[in-house]
Amino acid sequence: MSRVVVVSGGGTGIGRAVAASCAKEGDTVVIVGRRAEVLAATADEIGAHAIVADVSEVAGAERVAAEIGERHGRVDVLVNNAGGNAALALSDPGGEASPVARASAAWMGNLRANVLTAVHLTEALRDLLAVNGRVILLSSIAAFRGSGSGSYGGSKAALHPYAIDLAAALGPRGITVNVVAPGYTTETEFFGGSMTEERHEMLVGQALNKRAGHTDDVAATIRWLTSPDAGHVTAQIVQVNGGALPGR
């Protein structure tokens, strides 16, 4: 019997790589995201079912859970990938907002994008998680060494204790909960069009293997963590960054 795998933010980047990898292995894959056209194109290409929803909202997460419960009745693997640096999309062209207001907007945006998306979807699907199921939360190297503005790294760091608490609560059902924290990873929309050649070389230079990460690197790690072989690995934060360790 194939596994039911749910991937939020599954239309692009790391989420897409995870969804494609699972579909290739014969899993029944459900991808969740806000952009209908992007999600539909990915679903058609990899053979997944798409649910358009904003899981930063309670109603969106509950609607996803209702549809999955009706169609599949269970979830074997949940990958909470939706997120990004919401602060990058904020603008104050007139410079009218106070520093406090700008900081508040950045923090609230990133808490919604990176924390509430994971919390809402996990809690909505909690009762559907199968015995010996797997839950993955996507963090970032920024959770360990900062992100330059505080709010993005801080929001990702908030997922770590949440995962540990979840692992304790769900462990008696054989469910593992782990965090994957990638470093610089290409083939994503994270940087938009802001990545320069100089910054790329700087980030590559921080990795001990002197290369950028790829979405398939992260997807392969997630595939292992969600496999039977990793059944005794839980409450862990696994970094996938080529040795670009905190503080280097």
TrEMBL record:
What CDD domains does this protein's entry cite?
A: SDR_c
Residue span, FAD-binding PCMH-type domain = 1-186
Claim: Cytoplasm is one of the keywords in the record: no
Q: Which domain of life is it from?
A: Bacteria
Q: Which residues cross the membrane?
A: none
Keyword Secreted part of the UniProt annotation: no
**Which key words tag this protein in UniProt?**
NADP, Oxidoreductase
Check the record and name the InterPro entries matching this protein. Answer: FAD-bd_PCMH (IPR016166), KR_dom (IPR057326), NAD(P)-bd_dom_sf (IPR036291), Sc_DH/Rdtase_CS (IPR020904), SDR_fam (IPR002347), Sec_Metab_Biosynth_SDR (IPR052178)
Family membership noted in the UniProt record:
Belongs to the short-chain dehydrogenases/reductases (SDR) family.
Can you say what this protein is called? 3-oxoacyl-ACP reductase
Instruction: Write down the species.
Output: Asanoa iriomotensis
Question: Gene of origin?
Answer: fabG_11
